[in-house]
């Protein structure tokens, strides 16, 4: 009987120990599983926060880039509008100058008459040089700048020249005409030809610049 009680007590102790161990193991497993879930959840949130951080940065950069592009486009539009206004104003001013210039030319009847005399006398000089008749050319040229048709032509040049380019051609004409007179007086045929071509070319360019090229006969 004593042995039976002893065995029953030992069995109960063993079962109690086994159950306690089993319960502790299960509790440990549950705690471990909870820790793993908590870590996974924390990792998932970290990844989500990191992803959101990248997205926020990307959107911020995109917005800044778009704002910069819009700002550049707006500035370009303003500059283009300014350029258009300047171009329009320049066109208006050029048109106004052409109208004023044409009015001057239309009223310059006397000056155009002087220039027509210039064309006529230069033609006579050219014909004489072509015929190797330098004395005849000399009679038309006279003393050059003191000859009446040369003086009246320069009066017209002064009245109708309105730009530096036109004044330059006038200077070239007078310089070439002086060389022509000198060459003719020296009976130098070749130099006379060169000087005549230079003076005639300068007058033609001046007439083109002033708008008189089609209004004078013989050019």
UniProtKB/TrEMBL annotation:
Pfam families linked to this entry: MPH2 (PF20675)
Signal peptide: 1-20
Superkingdom in the source lineage: Eukaryota
Keywords noted in UniProt: Signal
Domain Maintenance of Photosystem II under High light 2 C-terminal: 114-219
GO biological process, one term: photosystem II repair
Name of the protein this chain belongs to: Maintenance of Photosystem II under High light 2 C-terminal domain-containing protein
């Amino acid at each position: 009987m004593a042995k039976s009680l002893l065995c029953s007590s030992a069995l109960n102790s063993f079962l109690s120990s086994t159950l306690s161990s089993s319960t502790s193991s299960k509790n440990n497993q549950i705690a471990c599983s909870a820790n793993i879930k908590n870590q996974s959840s924390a990792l998932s949130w970290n990844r989500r926060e990191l992803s959101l951080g990248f997205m926020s940065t990307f959107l911020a950069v995109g917005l800044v880039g778009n704002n910069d592009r819009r700002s550049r486009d707006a500035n370009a539009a303003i500059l283009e509008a300014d350029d258009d206004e300047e171009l329009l104003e320049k066109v208006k001013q050029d048109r106004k100058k052409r109208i004023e210039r044409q009015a001057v030319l239309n009223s310059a009847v006397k000056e155009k008459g002087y220039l027509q005399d210039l064309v006529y006398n230069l033609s006579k000089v050219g014909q004489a040089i072509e015929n190797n008749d330098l004395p005849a050319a000399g009679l038309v040229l006279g003393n050059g700048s003191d000859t009446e048709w040369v003086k009246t032509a320069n009066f017209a040049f002064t009245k109708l020249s309105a730009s530096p380019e036109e004044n330059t051609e006038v200077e070239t004409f007078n310089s070439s005409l002086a060389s022509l007179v000198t060459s003719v007086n020296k009976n130098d045929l070749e130099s006379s030809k060169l000087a005549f071509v230079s003076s005639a070319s300068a007058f033609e360019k001046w007439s083109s610049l002033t708008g008189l090229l089609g209004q004078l006969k013989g050019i």
